[in-house]
Amino acid sequence: MDITLVIMFAAALSAPVVGMWLGKWQLQASEEKRQLAPRPVITRDFRSWRAIPPAFTAYFNDHFGFRATLVQDHAAFLVKMLGQSTTSEVVVGKQGWLYYSKGRYMDSFRGRESFVAGELDQWVTALTRMRDWLDLRGIRFYVIMPPDKHTIYPEYLPRSVRLNSGATRLDTLTAALRKANIDVIDVRDDLRRAKPTARLYHQTDTHWNGDGGYVAYRAILVEVAKAFPMVRPLPRSDFTYWRRSVTGDLNALLGLTRGYEEDLLVLVPKSDAAVSREEGKLVISESHNPRLPRLVMMRDSFSNFLFAMLSQNFSRAVFTWDNNFDPALMQREKPDLVLFELVERRLADGAPVDLWYANR
What pairs with residue 183 in β-bridges? Predict the structure, then answer.
């Protein structure tokens, strides 16, 4: 019995080194979402030898065998068994729901703050300047701010997260923009009404899914149709799921990767009327109906779940992964309308830049 324990103990101690030597069972940079420490290089310069011990330590910590398994098993024990998070950036909720809590991203919801002094004015000024520039050229301007998951699904948050009884940043900015006569498409009530019929956000990811995106798609086009009557949302039955098993971004932050995937759900048209391509940070879609209006959408990653749907309703749709206003893009594309999309949590990051005013 004693010999068996000694052998097992020795095997446990040597397994990481053996795995490292064989190049097996190691952590991958794609899972860690960072560059792993490189192998230290020994040169003839004796002065450089001082850096070898810490460099080797960093290399060994990133590359020893079974590291990914040990890290994930430890994370799984904390998260799944104890309900504890492995990082301050993720709140572990009930029934497998995870929430993003990096920095100030949940402060407004928790009741700690709305906008600090001057921030609200910066937002209203920036978006009003965009609206005015476009209005002078006969281009309609709309703002949509997808709500964070905790705004729509607060019931799965742990009791430790205190709810805000006052106005959030999204409440405050929406009211201020409407007071400035900016068209804001607020989809929060639409999403809450749709909750009983489908899950609208991914449980282990920060984003809504295709069903949540479809609710926003309908709300956008119902509002746009007031100025462009030829634009009508397609029925849900015209779309089908595109599924792919992925590690949700929140699971990845916790260290839960292999075996903890979730189905990424995107809605795509059963009969696609548009052809799409990528050009740098732009996604460009063109349909077969030149009588439809032209769209430019300033956006973030939440619009990944809107591309395929919105592309069906415009003769040309250009989606730019940039929330700073680029007049050169507008002059080149000559859109009939511009959508400004920004997820709720990014209201804590500061107002976007109006490049036209910044370069004057």
Answer: 142
Element of type H or E holding 329: helix 327-333
Residue range 228-245, pLDDT digits in tens: 999 999 999 999 999 999
Whole-structure pTM value:
0.80
Write out pLDDT tens, residues 156-166: 999 888 777 77
C-alpha–C-alpha distance, residues 285 and 303, integer Å: 14
Is residue 27 packed enough to be buried (19+ CB in 10 Å), middle (13-18) or exposed (0-12)?
A: buried
What CA–CA distances, in Å, run from 270 to 238, 240, 304?
Answer: 6, 6, 18
Residues 6+ apart with CB under 8 A from 233: 217, 218, 221, 222, 313
Structure tokens at 39: 């192998």
For residues 189-195, average pLDDT: 97
Q: Quote helix, strand, coil % in the chain, to nearest 5.
A: 45, 15, 40
226 in Cβ contact with 268 (< 8 Å): no
Question: At 263, is the secondary structure helix, strand, or coil?
Answer: strand
